[in-house]
C-alpha cells in the first residue's frame, strides 16, 4: 500500500485515553455524523507495518486522535462541542512538548469556497460519517425490483419561523422556502419529524434534497449517494469531499439558494432530459465506496482517499513536521 501513496508514513500518537477511547462508553460515539474521528483512528491503527509506522523519526505525518464530538447534548441529542477547544489545546500542548514546531492539517467536514475560519488552516475535506453497517442493512431490505415511488424527498428540520435567539436565520431561510413552496405539492414528500426508517425513504426516492442547515453539508449527502438517490445540493459555496474520486457534477444536481422557488421546474427538466445518465453514474460502486469509512480500510474508500490526499502533500513534510487532526 505504501507504494500507492508514495511511501507515505504516518505515526499515530498514543494519547491518554481521556482524549479518545474514554468517550466510547457512549455507543453513539461510533455511529454519529462525526464518527469519522474514531473510524479513521481505528483504520490507521490497522495499517501497522504498512502506512503506519511506530518510529516517529521516519514519519511524514502525525495523526492526533482526539474525539471532540462524542459529548452529546442532553437537550437535543446533538454533539455538544463546547469542550472541544480546551481538549484540543491540551492535546496540542502534550504533543508539542515532545515534537515542537509542528504544522497542522485539519481533516474537516466543513468545506466552503468562501472566506471562513475553518479554511484558514491547511485542510482536507472529508465526508460526514455514515455507518457502512446501517447502509448494508437498508440495502438488504430493498426488493431488487422495487421502483422508486417517491419523486422528491426531504426529511429534516424545516422551521416556519426560522430566526433563532441570536437573530440568525436557520438555513438562510432555504428550508423554510422549500416547505412553504412545496409542502402541499404531491411531487414532494417533505417531512419535519424524525423517523427511524429514514434511509429506507431515501432508497425509495428519485431526488433527495440536500439543503444547507447551519452548515452547508449534512450526512444525507452521503446517504443519498450510497442509496442511489440523486442528491440535490442547495448550499452556495459548498466544497465537496474527494473531487478526484467522486465526480460530483456527474452524480448530483446543484441548485442555487436563490433558485429554490424554481426547484419544481428544475427537477422536472432534469427528469425529462438527463436523469437516466445521472442515475447510471450513481450506480458506480467506486463512487459509493469513496465516501464510506471502513475498518479495516478498503481500497478506494474514504480512509484511502484521505491517505491519497496526504500523499500529495508530502512536499510539505520534508522536515516531518506535519500533523493531521480530526
Automatic annotation (TrEMBL):
Membrane topology according to the record: Single-pass type II membrane protein
Entry keyword annotation includes Cell division: no
UniProt cross-references to InterPro entries, sorted A to Z: Exostosin (IPR004263), Exostosin_GT47 (IPR040911)
Organism: Brassica napus (Rape)
Organism domain of life: Eukaryota
Keyword field: Glycosyltransferase, Golgi apparatus, Signal-anchor, Transferase, Transmembrane
Name used for this protein in its record: Exostosin GT47 domain-containing protein
Domain Exostosin GT47: 7-101, 103-269
Family listed: Belongs to the glycosyltransferase 47 family.
UniProt key word Glycosyltransferase: yes
One Pfam family hit: Exostosin_GT47
Subcellular location: Golgi apparatus membrane
Main location group: Golgi
Amino acid at each position: 500500500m505504501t507504494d500507492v501513496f508514495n511511501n507515505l508514513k504516518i505515526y499515530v500518537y498514543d494519547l491518554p485515553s481521556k482524549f479518545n477511547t474514554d468517550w466510547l462508553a457512549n455507543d453513539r460515539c461510533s455511529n454519529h455524523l462525526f464518527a469519522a474521528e474514531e473510524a479513521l483512528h481505528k483504520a490507521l491503527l490497522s495499517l501497522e507495518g504498512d502506512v503506519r509506522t511506530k518510529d516517529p523519526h521516519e514519519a511524514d505525518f502525525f495523526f492526533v486522535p482526539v474525539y471532540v464530538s462524542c459529548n452529546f447534548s442532553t437537550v437535543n441529542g446533538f454533539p455538544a462541542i463546547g469542550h472541544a477547544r480546551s481538549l484540543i489545546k491540551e492535546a496540542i500542548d502534550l504533543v508539542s512538548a515532545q515534537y515542537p514546531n509542528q504544522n497542522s492539517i485539519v481533516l474537516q467536514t466543513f468545506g466552503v469556497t468562501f472566506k471562513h475560519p475553518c479554511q484558514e488552516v491547511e485542510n482536507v475535506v472529508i465526508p460526514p460519517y455514515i455507518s457502512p453497517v446501517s447502509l448494508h442493512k437498508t440495502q438488504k431490505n430493498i426488493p431488487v425490483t422495487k421502483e422508486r415511488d417517491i419523486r422528491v424527498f426531504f426529511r429534516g428540520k424545516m422551521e416556519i419561523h426560522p430566526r433563532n435567539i441570536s437573530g440568525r436565520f436557520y438555513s438562510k431561510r432555504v428550508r423554510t422556502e422549500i416547505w412553504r413552496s412545496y409542502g402541499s405539492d404531491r411531487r414532494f414528500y417533505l417531512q419535519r419529524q424524525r423517523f427511524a426508517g429514514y434511509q429506507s425513504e431515501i432508497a425509495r426516492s428519485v431526488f433527495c434534497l440536500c439543503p444547507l442547515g447551519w452548515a452547508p453539508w449534512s450526512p444525507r449527502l452521503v446517504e443519498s449517494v450510497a442509496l442511489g438517490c440523486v442528491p440535490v445540493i442547495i448550499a452556495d459555496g459548498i466544497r465537496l469531499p474527494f473531487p478526484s474520486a467522486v465526480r460530483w457534477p456527474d452524480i448530483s444536481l446543484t441548485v442555487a439558494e436563490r433558485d429554490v422557488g424554481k426547484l419544481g421546474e428544475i427537477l422536472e427538466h432534469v427528469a425529462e432530459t438527463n436523469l437516466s445518465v445521472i442515475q447510471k453514474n450513481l450506480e458506480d460502486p467506486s463512487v459509493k465506496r469513496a465516501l464510506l469509512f471502513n475498518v479495516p480500510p478498503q481500497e478506494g474508500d474514504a480512509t484511502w482517499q484521505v491517505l491519497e490526499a496526504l500523499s500529495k502533500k508530502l512536499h510539505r513534510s520534508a522536515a516531518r513536521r506535519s500533523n493531521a487532526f480530526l
